Amino acid sequence: MTTPNNMTTESLNATADVVKDIGSTESILILLIFIIAFALILGEVVDRVLAAWGGAVGMLLIGTFYDSLTWCTGGGHGEGSHGGCENNLFDAIDFNVIGLLLGMMIFAGMLEISGFFEFVAIKATKLSKGDPWLLVVYLGTFTTIISVFIDNVTALILIAPVTLKICSKIEISPIPPLIALAIFSNTGGVATLVGDPPNVLIASYTAERGLGFSFISFIEHLTPLAILAWGATLGYMRYHYTEWREKTPQNVEEILEEDEWTAVNNDVLMYRTLGALAVTVIMFAAVELIHLDLEISAVSLGGAGIAMCISMIGVTKDKRLDIHEVIHKVEWAALLFFAGLFVMVGGLEAMGHLEAIANWIFNNFGPDGNISKDEVVLVIVLIWVSAIASAIVDNIPFCAAMLPVINQLGELSEDVNVIPLYWALAIGCGFGGNATPIGSSANVMTISISERGGHKISTKEWLSVGIPVMLITCTIATIVVALFYGHFTTA
């Protein structure tokens, strides 16, 4: 078996081109802009939306000045404005993700207006008898379970407002449970094809190449590992939030005596919105399971549009939906932040920085002709590098950048089995997204919803939980892959 270092002349030339790109003046400036923006976001020096868009505009200016920062129709980077490439880095924005989030935010806003979240908050408090930790366990488990059918970002948009309501009622800090929900959803989302956005990308990419990464195969290969990691995460959370768990909640007796139905101020709106949401969730599952030719953004926005329409038909004036109120509920700042982040990561990809990381992995840890020992090392290294990189640049764009590189490795050497590398990418992106506030879309949404509720989650507080969880879950993954490597060699 040949090594990536000696695989082919084409491989060497490709790597050399990347090295040349990342050593240029404009490439260094792009990297510097990203580092500064990343530091401003994590350091909370300025608002994260301003930092993201400041970095995005800076990259666009550099790209325009040097006429080198281009975005190709099929992704990647090129030179000049030919071959399907042009100086328009805004093409790096994944409007499919933006559309998905916008649609689900509209659903969440309508449910909040109807009083649904207040209803669920009272009901959940009664079930847990006001025990803060039981609330975390119940809500975390529920979030993970529904992530089997819809992505974890959508699950967070629906569950986080409920959490805020509950914590407000019993007068405890909502920050620990909100962070826990995001981390649980990221960890549990690794288990299924639709649970985590990177998994959807991997399944779609490999399906086009006939590798057979199906809904069932994700469950067979990743669900047992995700369950182990989820359990370990739960144990760490219980230890980390010992002081928070021991605080006595307030107003529990009064809440236990409340009638949750009195919290519903528009039952027509609630029922119709929930009906439209149920159909939308079924369509989400159908798109992935039976491969409907629909974008998830179309399903999300279409479902939200139908929900608004049916909520205004045949109802009395006092029950009619106020569209302006719904628009006010949308987390516009989060959507703008995502767009800016996509542009910045697109700049890194266009200049070859992400590809350079991939080449470094394969050149230094690829198979060397011995038995599968080195292949195991490569897979484990990819898990850790993907985890660390996902924590820095968000796991969705990093996953998208790595997919063609893994595919290229398989094309350059028939002896290399790329299937374990795709599983490693899914594991690393899923677990690594827990580490920082911008490591995954679910994290960003959680922070945005928390701030809207008047509770700011600091970077320091997130890192104190996220980094240990990343280390614990990636260590578990390393042990499982080392012991059961053969299980990951098939799709």
Oligomeric form of this entry? single chain
Query: What is the count of β-strands?
Result: 2
Helical coverage, percent range? over 70%
Work out the helix count.
22
Summed over residues and divided by their number, the pLDDT gives a mean of 82
Description:
With 491 residues, this protein is mainly α. Helix content is 71%, strand content 1%. It is built from 22 helices and 2 strands. It has helices at residues 9-22, 25-43, 48-66, 95-114, 116-128, 132-146, 152-169, 175-189, 197-207, 215-240, 242-245, 252-257, 267-289, 296-310, 323-329, 332-350, 353-365, 373-393, 395-412, 419-432, 441-452, 459-483, and strands at residues 71-72, 85-86. Strands 1-2 form a two-stranded antiparallel ribbon. The radius of gyration is 23 Å and the shape is globular. The two termini are 22 Å apart. The model is unreliable at 1-20, 73-84 and 369-373 (pLDDT under 50).
Q: What is the structure about, briefly put?
A:
With 491 residues, the chain is mostly helical. It has 22 helices and two strands. It is 71% helix and 1% strand.
Annotation keywords:
globular; mainly alpha; two-stranded antiparallel sheet
List the helices and strands and how they pair.
Blueprint: H1 9-22, H2 25-43, H3 48-66, E1 71-72, E2 85-86, H4 95-114, H5 116-128, H6 132-146, H7 152-169, H8 175-189, H9 197-207, H10 215-240, H11 242-245, H12 252-257, H13 267-289, H14 296-310, H15 323-329, H16 332-350, H17 353-365, H18 373-393, H19 395-412, H20 419-432, H21 441-452, H22 459-483
